[in-house]
Design goal:
The longest helix is centred in the C-terminal third of the chain and has 17 residues, at 350-366. The strands form 2 sheets. This protein has an 8-stranded mixed sheet, sandwiched between helices. A 6-stranded mixed sheet has the order 2-3-4-1-5-6, with helices on one face. Helix 5 crosses helix 6 (168-174) and helix 9 packs across helix 11 (350-366). The chain folds into 2 domains: 2-144, Rossmann fold (3-Layer(aba) Sandwich); 192-381, Nucleotidyltransferase, domain 5. The protein has helices at 2-8, 33-46, 98-108, 127-135, 156-166, 168-174, 251-265, 278-291, 307-320, 331-342, 350-366, and strands at residues 25-30, 53-55, 60-62, 68-73, 87-91, 115-119, 197-198, 207-215, 227-235, 240-247, 269-273, 298-303, 324-327, 375-381. It contains 11 helices and 14 strands.
């Protein structure tokens, strides 16, 4: 598919997204030089005796119409900058760093409004998984997921043998094209199936308690952590219905957004981490809620144990039993689930931390499940 698109272009009509035959400048970028070498061999076979020029050292073929295809490697991202492109194949994208696409390749498409095809075997739930998920919502994107068992050229007994030899996880990724859990992640990918999402909150007469928790951020810059608000509604069956709001924001915005969310969600308890300087933030919430005439059931949460230990101990039983539901269509809930699936390997764990605090607030204040010893809860203002 990549070879046909690079040479002939693609789209609803000839020339909609030009290929090298139509004069386009096309790059094929592979994660390593070795993978690129195979692509280079296939490209030479496809263009045999049809090129106007061929350069082995640059792995570049030019065609009579003025178009060209160059096979590049992501081993040296700095060498991928500068040239404007009409089209791009990103091969085994899941095995490249996100910065290769974001900082080097994406800008090269802007001048000519070039097209891109990403082809890859999944590699856990990394940036390629996020790109694949986002493509479902974007009008200018399309996505395909094609497992090897749809290929009629591969005999059925080969799949059985591969599954026995590779194990279920590797087989699901390599042969079934599934985005399984990140290798080394705490929580099983089986916890994050499609049934965890909901479109509508349960009716009020089914809700026992509503709690809200905040893990404050350390700043509002692009490199800072997220400030994470998590809202949890516990129903009569013990299922927890969850939404989240995860953004990078300064303390002023944290307070404004927190009061807005509390006004909407009407929590029976609102927990704010008060470790170190975060206690000041809880005090600001208390004063602002009084000023605005809100009866905010504010509780300070003081964490004492290691964050990874707390999140693992608190959330694992509920995830394993399928007792969480997450708001479909909510960017914050989606990001929360992504952080859970990659925990503790992802560089951000603000969402799981806020969810852990919300569950423990339910335990402590409303005696839901076993009580918590990992933090103290102090009522600040009711």
């Amino acid at each position: 598919m990549g070879l046909m698109a690079a040479l002939r272009g693609h789209g609803a009509y000839r020339g909609e997204r030009r290929g090298a035959i139509d004069g386009a400048n096309i790059w094929w970028v592979a994660p390593t030089y070795g993978v690129g070498a195979k692509i280079w061999r296939d490209l030479k076979k496809a263009c045999h005796a049809g090129w106007s020029g061929k350069w082995e050292s640059d792995r570049r073929i030019e065609l009579p119409g003025g178009g060209c295809i160059v096979v590049k490697s992501a081993d040296a991202p700095a060498a991928l900058r500068g040239e404007g492109l009409d089209g791009l194949i990103v091969d085994e994208a899941a095995y490249m760093r996100e910065s290769v696409w974001r900082d080097a390749l994406r800008p090269a498409l802007s001048d000519a409004q070039g097209w891109t095809i990403f082809t890859s075997t999944p590699n856990g739930r990394n940036w390629f998984y996020k790109l694949f998920e986002a493509a479902q919502e974007e009008n200018e994107w399309q996505r395909w997921q094609l497992p090897t068992n749809q290929n009629p050229l591969v005999p059925g007994n080969e799949f059985a043998a591969a599954r026995r030899e590779m194990g279920a996880r590797a087989f699901a990724q390599e042969y079934l094209a599934r985005f399984v859990e990140t290798q080394g992640a705490e929580f099983s990918g089986a916890y994050f199936h499609q049934d965890i999402w909901f479109d509508h909150w349960p009716p009020d007469n089914r809700i026992r308690w509503r709690v809200m928790a905040l893990d404050p951020s350390k700043g509002g810059t692009e490199r800072s952590d997220y400030s994470a608000f998590v809202m949890v509604a516990l129903d009569d069956n013990g299922v927890m219905w969850v939404d989240a709001d995860l953004k990078r924001r300064d303390p002023v915005q944290i307070v404004a957004d927190g009061l807005r969310l509390a006004h909407w969600f009407q929590p029976d308890a609102f927990g704010v981490e008060v470790n170190q300087y975060h206690g000041i933030l809880a005090g600001i919430f208390a004063e602002r809620s009084k000023t605005e005439g809100m009866m905010l059931p504010l509780h300070g949460i003081r964490n004492h144990e290691n964050k990874v230990t707390r999140i693992r101990a608190t959330l694992t039983p509920y995830l394993a039993r399928g007792e969480f539901r997450f708001q479909a269509g909510s960017p914050g809930a989606k990001l929360l689930v992504e952080q859970l699936a990659a925990f503790p390997l992802d560089k951000h764990d603000d969402g799981p931390d806020a969810l852990e605090m919300a569950v423990r607030l339910l335990r402590h204040v409303f005696e839901f499940g076993p009580n918590a010893h990992h933090y103290s809860v102090e009522r600040i203002y009711t």
